[in-house]
Amino acid sequence: MSDLAIETSGLVKVFGKNRAVDGIDLRVPAGTVYGVLGPNGAGKTTAVRMLATLLRPDAGEARVFGHDVVREADAVRSRVSLTGQYASVDEDLTGAENLVLLARLLGYRKRGARDRARELLAAFGLTDAADRQVKKYSGGMRRRLDIAASILNTPDLLFLDEPTTGLDPRSRNQVWDIVRIVVAHGTTVLLTTQYLDEADRLAGRIAVIDHGKVIAEGTPGELKSSIGAGTVHLRLRDARQRPDAERVLSAALGAPVQLDADPVALTARVDAQGDDRGAAEQASRALAELAQAGITVDDFSLGQPSLDEVFLALTGEHVETEHDTEQGSVLEEAKA
Amino acid sequence: MTTAVTTNGFTPMAETLSAVLAPGHRPTRPSPLSASITFGWRAVLKIKHVPEQLFDVTAFPIIMTLMFTYLFGGALAGSTGEYLQFLLPGIMVTSVVMITMYTGVAVNTDIEKGVFDRFRTLSIWRAAPMVGYLLGDVLRYLLASAMIMAVGLVLGFRPDGGVVGVLAGVALLMVFSFAFSWIWTMFGLLLRSEKSVMGVSMLVLFPLTFLSNVFVEPRTMPGWLQAFVEVNPITHLVASVRGLMAGDWDGGELSWTLIFAAIFTVVFGTLTMRLYNRK
Fold it and tell me: ipTM value of the model?
């Protein structure tokens, strides 16, 4: 036995001509949250489905706690749980019925199953909704029930496939809190997401995947230092000050500044690389210098790099590529 | 609306969540029977939440019984009363066998839902979800049989086999339908849409139920048709049920019916499980 929850080598799944997963190697340490980050169609769900024994790999190997996902599927199943991208609960049944059903299938006796269901409904704040059909639940409630169903048997490994896609910010925060508590309890979590922000907040390590391949892997810190710690967005009061602002900003941050389509807006990357100062400190210093130069800033924000920026940094390609030409023409306009 | 507000205001509490995560003893995996019964319970819960779906097992059999009794009764047997003695066991078989196709439709619409992914990641007997469908459906078949028997008794059906004979006939019909339904679980997994499942079902069910001894004695048919009717499993089933309800059962027909049931289960059960594991 190893202390790896998941170990894959050269994992491949082909659907027709589409190599959905094209040789993925992963090593997920037990007891951590591991983030799999990528855009729609990158192969995240297909990879998870193979690891959860739902799909048979076309090539390569995958082991979960040392058990082969094909040859020892049953041993894998007894230790994992899956919360799929679309609710993995029965919409026609009530919340309580869903949990009792699953508890029974996990081997709880009648009384035990009912008790366990009640306990979980209470812990997930669903007691009031216990006897309502799941189709009448809100997105956040449905997701909580889904996760409750997944931890009925306290699995050793929990797959969460895009658990916060489509949720409002409050429900998203609830899911994040739950993940933290679950992992503190010793369960390994494999989380797929489209949001760098989410992976950064939760995961100990992140694999970035695109077109079925891992294009980067490391701790959030390592990834960010390779792609820039963040992005500052500025809006000036006076468009005529933009050339000055661009000069001051690029000198202060030591990075190129993008001029946005909006004539008063600027965007710049903040690199923490080779500098001990954090992104926030660098940005505030840049702001001070702008003020000193007499440039009025109406609005300012410091954000995480978006998934698009991550891909730009890692592959040199936008997830969607249109921006460059647009910015070019705006630049011409501004000069004219 | 007030409840929605309070549940949305939920904050995950580390203590309460930790308490439910505490690794108590994990129960041992359920037996194949217990897992199958649990899935059968799921089917019953679905009926409870969507009772309209029982329309097909209540109204349809009644209409079938009334329609064919009065349509053919006078012409074929001289009177509807006499024809009913002949027709009722057969119309019961026809109705129930026709209802079996809804198993395929249910499998087809259910399997695409996320909840099936969860079932398939459980460490349980692999066939349990499919057997669960069939167990739930046996309940529906029983309901349909009871409706038809009630209508029959009102119209004047008087089985010589008595209560025991009728119950034995229904029991045999249940065994056969359970076995026969594996065809539909297979098609439910094989075909892409609900509509195609319905289409294929009709194509199989119409010849099978009508080209049999349900409505008329095979003696009146041309030779080539008699040949088909003779090997049709429905013919053997109808002859057996008729015999049981009339109080003089035919061991040969009974054996043929049970042999067919065994073949359906083995062949289509195996194919179903193969498709299910590949899905």
Answer: 0.85
